[in-house]
Amino acid sequence: MRRNLLSVAFLVFALLLCAPAVLAQGKAKTGPDPSTIRDPDLEKDSLHNLEVARNYFKLKKAYVAALKRCEEIIAGNPNFARIEEALFMAGESSLFLAENKGKQSPSLYAKPTLPADEFRKMGREYLTRLITDYPNSSFRKQAEADLAALDTAKVKTESSKQ
Questions:
Q1: Distance between CA 112 and CA 138 in Å, rounded?
Q2: If residue 71 lies in a helix (H) or strand (E), which one and from where to where?
Q3: 34: pLDDT confidence band, cut at 50, 70 and 90?
Q4: What is d(CA 11, CA 145) in angstroms, rounded to the nearest whole number?
Q5: DSSP-derived secondary structure for 104-159
Q6: 26 part of a folded domain
């Protein structure tokens, strides 16, 4: 009986001695952060959509097509490695459609056609998300400038109505 008690006491002591080593493992048992896990096929598809959107945006001035491609990326792959460029292009395309710029009519975006204020609101949301979620983005300065210009234009139209 005494021998069993001594064995149990030794076992408890050994477990207590090993407990800090187990706790030192930290997050190793939880795995990597889920926001950094990227599906290679989805990344490849999103990159293709981004290249097509860039082509529509820069070369063809087809802002409806660029906006739709960017929205597909944003909705389908929020962990995309280059999501800030998609957010920037979506915001810029929305602002250009609000001003009726480009070779495509804003009516191609949705039926019934969205008013210019709705496109401005969409553009503001995309650019604000870019600035808040990706503060180190290379697109941040341009997004801030566009938002400042958007706010200045809003103040001018409100003062002219009075």
A1: 35
A2: helix 63-76
A3: low
A4: 67
A5: S-GGGTSSSPPPHHHHHHHHHHHHHHHHHH-TT-TTHHHHHHHHHHHHHHHHHHHH
A6: no
According to the model, what pLDDT value does residue 135 have?
95
Q: Which among 47, 66, 45 is positioned nearest to 55, based on CA atoms?
A: 66
Q: Is the pTM of this model over 0.85?
A: no
In total, how many domains does the chain have? 1
102: left (phi over 0), alpha (psi -120 to 50) or beta: left
d(CA 22, CA 148): 53
Cα–Cα distance, 64 to 10 (Å, whole number): 73
**Rg of the chain taking only CA atoms, in angstroms:** 27
Separation of alpha carbons 83 and 72, rounded Å: 11
Q: Which residues contact 45 (CB under 8 A, 6 or more apart)?
A: 77
Domain extent for 107: 39-154
How many Å apart are CA 123 and CA 102, to the nearest integer?
16
Looking at residue 87, which CATH number applies to its domain? 1.25.40.10
Q: How many CA atoms lie within 13 A of 95 on its CB side?
A: 23
